[in-house]
């Protein structure tokens, strides 16, 4: 069996703070193949962004401790030197961020920012890099790229800025693209355009994409596989169809329940998940979701509050929950009927 | 750009006129009569009236002010000095010398003092601030931060006297403060100003260290700095090309204003080292009720600040494209 393109094993990201150790990511594993898109879903503070900053090595080494294994094309990234990481960033793997206006330098032109990535990794001349920047802008659908290349980010609209950011991330044809909520700040039509663009580019270059979002609608559009994170851990994993159609974890079910449905009856109230995301400084005992879980009492004894459920996977599909498959079928079906009737 | 410049220059002129009017009013609000001082002890009412006329302060205040303004733009005539060409700032009550030539005479001292110490404090202040920002939280940062806190709370008249005593009198390392024109002898110019430069820049270095550090720390936490790292830019590139670019705007602004203030006369430094610059001139003008001289010095100081304000705005637009196009 060949090793997957990106393989993360038992990743732990711990921050030292004045109040103690924050376990932002606590034992996360997943694989990603080229040409596939993995959607990572979770609330704020579930560890999804932290995981991906760790992949790029952009965490703050002064207070962050990384453990586990991150293998990119067989290369271990956690132990890699800063110089090696610099060679990889923007070249073999790159990232696009949520707030394109804040994430692009206000002091440099769009063309210079795209071009310098290219020059850094290919050693191309300024002229060649500029031509490449124009080509990239054209490819991401910026009209009149040879004029706009000398504009500054504040002269671009929100959607164009995000396109420019994608152009910058893709200028060296990376094999791994991490998109951290790239469409959250955009309106829906622009959001759809950006996602189509990502899909097209992926088809063209076979890029592996990690798409971080809290929006299940976006996941339904773009992802092949879905990983649901809660409190720094993976609580459910599977293909998009599996996770969205037949969720196995009460948290995923809760996420789906808090989304309005277009084809369901309109007068059904949304059911938000009660409570707040867990503190990662003092995570709840046992299953981290149990204080907010509707089904915790269905599990015999106090298993949910004492024992952390293991993530049981068969062929990449599974969840971390103490409920038995039979219980889930029964309880989740009731829940679904209650929502649709 | 041209429209911006014209608008700013008109604004600056208005400000300067207002400042001069305020100085005029304030001067006469003080319960002292320059004529009586000039006239001396044995002074009859007749002589006093004569002195008053001679000094040009017999007329009502608005007339005096208008004459003064007129002198600047078209020149004016004096009974005792004849015609004074524009720009005419009048003649000192005290020395009877032309105000403009006195200022022109003193300005090089102040200019040398300000520019020399600016170079020193910019180099060391920005350097130390950057170092502290890179080594955030480490020993270097803590030393730089506490040293600058101590230095910025020192006073020039204390440090200046102490430095002269130790460096000049006790250890014979440096020369006593003096001013030799640069054009006469550059080496003597630098040697004579070294102690004042060091003392004046010590406190300013401390301020610039703290300011640079905080600006850099803030800039380093910007999203675009993280993006630059995500593109594979090295720490050094990120630090200088991105973070420093963001931090230098506010530093340039403050520097421009500070330099404007210094050029108006570093009063305490000049007094401490007995350097005959604009600062000393203004102290003397105040203590001798020398209105024309005082007005002249104040106008130069105000003009320096106003001009550097305009320069700063121009430079800022150059640094930050968002300002340029707004």
UniProtKB/TrEMBL annotation, chain A:
Keywords: ATP-binding, Cell membrane, Membrane, Nucleotide-binding, Transport. Its main location: membrane. Residues 8-256 form the ABC transporter domain. SMART domains: AAA. The keyword Nucleotide-binding applies. GO terms for molecular function: ATP binding. It is found in: Cell membrane. It holds the Pfam family oligo_HPY. PROSITE patterns: ABC_TRANSPORTER_1 (PS00211), ABC_TRANSPORTER_2 (PS50893). It is a peripheral membrane protein. InterPro entries: AAA+_ATPase, ABC_Ni/Peptide_Import, ABC_transporter-like_ATP-bd, ABC_transporter-like_CS, Oligopep_ABC_C, P-loop_NTPase. Belongs to the ABC transporter superfamily. This is ABC transporter ATP-binding protein. It comes from Streptomyces spinosisporus.
UniProtKB/TrEMBL annotation, chain B:
The chain crosses the membrane at residues 9-30, 115-134, 146-168, 188-206, 242-268, 293-319. Keywords: Cell membrane, Membrane, Transmembrane, Transmembrane helix, Transport. It is a multi-pass membrane protein. This is ABC transporter permease. It comes from the Bacteria. Residues 107-316 form the ABC transmembrane type-1 domain. Its main location: membrane. Belongs to the binding-protein-dependent transport system permease family. It is found in: Cell membrane.
